[in-house]
Amino acid sequence: MRVVIEDHVMPVLMSAAIEAYDIVHKATERSKGKKKIETYGLLWGYVVPAKSEDGENKVIVTSATIETSAIRHENYVQPDIESIETKKALIQQYWPHLELVGTFHSHPYDSLDEVNDIRGWEASGEDGDLSYWTNFHENIAPEQPVLAHLILTVAQLQKMGWALPDSFQGRNYSGFRISAGTKKLWLNTYMSVCDLIEDEIEDTEEYQSYIYDGKIKLDSPALLRRILENS
């Protein structure tokens, strides 16, 4: 499995995650605001199915949109399903070359130590990210064989930091670690798979989605080059 993130997608993802982290968000002018909250968005592009038994499925992310209607909190984000379905229908009608190919959300943490202590770049447990992604895939985009699910983790550094971008690999995820100014960022991706199950006896069809449990390759070469050239 491979996920390719095109260059012009990254400013949307990074700016949304850092804005939610740094800027106080208020429901009204007089209400008490919050910062270091999560944010959420949708990934658009196209899926290239494997051409052979030993080939790989590819998700190409060419654009992203941020869900401004999502309920955002320090420890969770809850998108509005009606908003997602509206955007999907709109884009399918007027931009048919784009498909819904995944989701994005951020994980904000106070410090580098906190991220490392609880492995904050990983998905939350079975009742969190993992179950949400499979339900999303099965109910919102069952026509896609695979979807990408990006997590952008943000932590504050004590001082301006710099380090060579490097990659990390888990059992069923793949990502990059990046130092950008006073922030440390982890860009991580998981993938979900949706299978069509046909019952010829009952003459029924249904979908079953699950988290991909294998090696994933995350590609964002332009991002890594920009970090190296401008830090």
Give a verbal description of the structure.
- It is a single chain.
- With 231 residues, the protein is α+β, with helices and mostly antiparallel strands.
- It has one domain (2-230): Cytidine Deaminase, domain 2 (3-Layer(aba) Sandwich).
- It is built from five helices and twelve strands.
- It has helices at 10-22, 81-94, 112-118, 129-140, 221-230; strands at residues 2-5, 40-48, 58-66, 71-72, 77-78, 99-109, 146-156, 166-169, 174-180, 183-199, 204-211, 217-219.
- The strands form two sheets. Strands 1, 2, 3, 6, 7, 8, 9, 10, 11 and 12 form a ten-stranded mixed sheet that branches. Strands 4-5 form a two-stranded antiparallel ribbon.
- The radius of gyration is 18 Å and the shape is globular.
- The mean pLDDT is 89.
Report the order of strands and helices. Answer: EHEEEEHEHHEEEEEEH
CATH class: Alpha Beta
Low-confidence stretches: none
What is the number of strand segments?
Answer: 12
Which outline best applies? globular
Can you tell me the number of structural domains? 1
Task: Quote the beta fraction.
Answer: 35-45%
- Give the fraction of residues assigned to helices: 10-25%
CATH topology title: Cytidine Deaminase, domain 2
Overall structural class, as computed from helix and strand content, comes to alpha+beta
Mean pLDDT score: 89
User: What's the total helix number?
Assistant: 5
In whole angstroms, the N-to-C terminal distance is 31 Å
Radius of gyration: 18 Å
CATH superfamily: Cytidine Deaminase, domain 2
Which CATH architecture? Answer: 3-Layer(aba) Sandwich
Q: Tell me the major beta sheet.
A: 10 strands, mixed
